[in-house]
Amino acid sequence: MENVKRLLRLGLAGLCILNLISPAWAWGAKGHKLIVSAALADLPPVLPAFLRHANTALRFLTNEPDRWRESGLTELNAENAPDHFINLERVPFASHWPRDRYGFIQALQQRAAALSRQGHPREAAQLAPAKVGFNPYAAIEYYQRLLIAFQEYRAARARHLALGPFNAHVIETMGLLSHYVGDGSQPLHTTIQYNGWIGPDPAGFTRSHRIHAYFETVFVNRAVPADALRGRLVPPRRLAHPFRAYLQYLRVTHTQVIPLYRLNRQGAFRGRGSAAGRHFVIARLAAGARMLADLVYTAWLNSARPPTRPLQF
Q1: Is residue 6, in this structure, part of any structural domain at all?
Q2: Residues 98, 186 within the same domain
Q3: Is 62 helix (H, G, I), strand (E, B) or coil?
Q4: pLDDT tens for each residue of 69-78
Q5: Is the pTM for the entire model greater than 0.85?
Q6: Could you tell me the CATH number of the domain that includes residue 203?
Q7: pLDDT tens-digit readout, 44-91
Q8: Least packed by Cβ within 10 Å: which of 80, 106, 172, 175?
Q9: Is 176:142 a contact under the CB 8 Å cutoff?
């Protein structure tokens, strides 16, 4: 019996450690909540009042995609996990990205086939779509879903229908969009160096597989106050090309991979962190909130255009 109790204690301790270091929760629950709340506060009064007062629901919904990842359901996780990241080093084109995820998959497969023919099977295997990631496509797909949800809300209001279901649909869609946009502001979600440096090391960077979760969850929980993003956002802008704007947002995030590793080497994320460490993580969270506010604002303005087909309810 004593051995059983000891095993149970060890098992519980192991679960606690896994919960601490698991990389599945991008930004952790707190970081995603900070992003969606800051974006919501930044939205102008032109957006519907029901949405601007939906903070509690949005803070719950923003972490739903990570709960899907933690579900242990094989099929759901296989479909959902690659939507949280994009390994930009693996993308074989710097510009002219395919407009949809299936075109992206086809382009990766064509490049992989060419590498195989050239005698580079290892490089070809690295282009498996699920290993490269789909984050920009997840984000633009949810942006377009939000645009449609706004169109439905406008149509229902014009027809004097009960708005409850339409309001709920808008809130849910924005909540899910907010998660993937938030993932895109975390540098370790844009790189093959997502959890400890691999390959040639440019500057003595850590190879620990704990950096990912430590930075985005443990450090955020310790060092970032609840009001950290207050006053850090500018009014949202209407995006002329949402997908292009989102790709540029990811490229900027990717430029912060080496600065993150450099700050980690300097101890900037230890405990409550240095001023530089806190500034870095807050700037990344603010970038996510700004992009989210831009996308929501753009979806609302673009939803004023008549839909291509009459909406059926």
Answers
A1: no
A2: no
A3: coil
A4: 899 999 999 9
A5: yes
A6: 1.10.575.10
A7: 999 999 999 999 999 999 999 999 989 999 999 999 999 999 999 999
A8: 106
A9: yes
Q: Are 84 and 136 in contact (CB under 8 A)?
A: no
Looking at the structure, do residues 198 and 113 belong to the same domain, yes or no? no
If DSSP states are collapsed to H, E and C, what string results for 86-141?
Answer: CCHHHCCCCCCCCCCHHHHHHHHHHHHHHHHHCCCHHHHHCCCHHHHCCHHHHHHH
Report d(CA 297, CA 144) in Å as an integer. Answer: 12
The token pair at 126 is: 């690295």
With tokens 């992003």, the residue in question is 35
Q: Is 200 exposed, middle or buried (0-12, 13-18, 19+ CB in 10 A)?
A: exposed
121-130 contacts: CB < 8 A, separation 24 or more?
Answer: 126/90, 127/90, 127/92, 129/82, 129/104, 129/105, 130/78, 130/81, 130/82
Residues in the chain, how many?
Answer: 313
Rounded distance, CA 250 to CA 242, Å?
Answer: 12
Q: Do residue 126 and residue 205 come from a single domain?
A: no
- Domain range enclosing 270: 25-86+136-302
- Give the C-alpha separation, 271 to 223, whole Å: 8
Q: b/e string for 226-255 if b means 16 or more Cβ within 10 A?
A: eebbeeebeebeebeebbebbbebbeebbe
- Copy the structure tokens of residue 176: 């899910």
Residue whose pair of structure tokens reads 């339409």 in the numeric block: 166
Residue bearing tokens 């359901």: 73
At how many degrees (to 10) do helices 257-265 and 275-302 cross?
A: 160
